[in-house]
Amino acid sequence: MPQPTDRRPVALVTGSAQRIGRAIALELAAHGWQVAVHYRRSAADAAQTVAAAQAAGGHAIAFAADLADEAECVALVPTVAQAFGRIDAVVNNASLFEYDSIDSFSVATMERHWRANTAPAILLARALHAIVSEPEAPAGGGVVVNLLDQKLWNPNPDYLSYTLSKAALEAANTLLAQALAPRVRVCGVAPGVTLLSGAMSGAEFDSSHRMTPLQRGSTPQDVARAVRFLLESPAITGTTLLVDGGQHLQAQARDVMFLAREQDKPKAP
Fold first, then answer.
1. What pLDDT, in 10s, does the model give residues 161-209?
2. How far apart are the C-alpha atoms of 197 and 200, rounded to whole Å?
3. What span, in angstroms and rounded, lies between the C-alpha atoms of 19 and 239?
4. Please, is 204 exposed, middle or buried when counting C-beta atoms within 10 Å of its C-beta (0-12, 13-18, 19+)?
5. Phi and psi for 198 in degrees, rounded to 5?
6. Is 104 exposed, middle or buried (0-12, 13-18, 19+ CB in 10 A)?
7. What is the helix (H) or strand (E) element at residue 12, kind and residue range?
8. Strand-by-strand arrangement of the 240-243 sheet
9. What CATH homologous superfamily does 10-195+217-246 map to?
10. Per-residue pLDDT for 113 more than 80?
11. DSSP conformational letter for 254
């Protein structure tokens, strides 16, 4: 691995061409981090994120990889380390979010979510541990932050395969924190309703965003600040921050999209 010319720490943020991942990349770039902007197909968006990160004062490079492809996933961390001369953190943000229920569940759907949401985070964490354990690696070790979901603390059976994949990732948080200590810390951030996604309409998003004790959900900036806090907190490992306006405190029988849809139905005269 070449000696770095820039001594600032490097974070790989998966799925950072757009949406929450982009907010995380820009937050880190504005606060002294170099950023590896990962994308799968969104090359133009990744280039825009790189430009915005550079404008915010950070050094950034885009990297393409299909994380569901094990070989491409395993190669990503060494490739980033080679490009920057170091790597200090991995933020596992990239995620598949497809609807299914017990009636439509299939092994194929479960496997797609596992290969996108769970297995890559484990492979990337292992690869980071290998890099930061090398004799020439900077002191301080590394850190992994996994993006989870408040739904795990407030379960309902909608988005079944997605939920199961995130539940496995939450369990992996603990197992990885144990297995990779002391060189790598492993933490989680669990957002609530943050951005319009899936089949949710704008009106449903607005309603669901307010369906919390704080009457606000999480914003991409809220999530990004939580991620940076964990990256920069050397005594924290094996735990998760819930950044959701308190949504996890309210039992919800269905996904919040369906609750908002029901709430917004015209009332019978």
1. 999 999 999 999 999 999 999 999 999 999 998 776 666 676 676 666 6
2. 6
3. 24
4. buried
5. 60, -140
6. exposed
7. strand 10-13
8. 60-64, 34-39, 10-13, 89-92, 142-147, 184-191, 240-243
9. NAD(P)-binding Rossmann-like Domain (3.40.50.720)
10. yes
11. S
Token digits for 206?
């607005």
Residues serving a catalytic function are: 19, 149, 162
> Model pTM?
0.90
The Cβ-side half-sphere exposure at 233, using a 13 Å CA radius, reads: 17
Q: Within 10 Å of residue 30's Cβ, how many Cβ atoms?
A: 16
Q: Which of 23, 33, 34 is nearest to 60 (CA)?
A: 34
Domain boundary assignment for the chain: 10-195+217-246
Distance CA 106, CA 113 (A): 11
Judge whether 245 and 213 are in contact, CB under 8 Å: yes
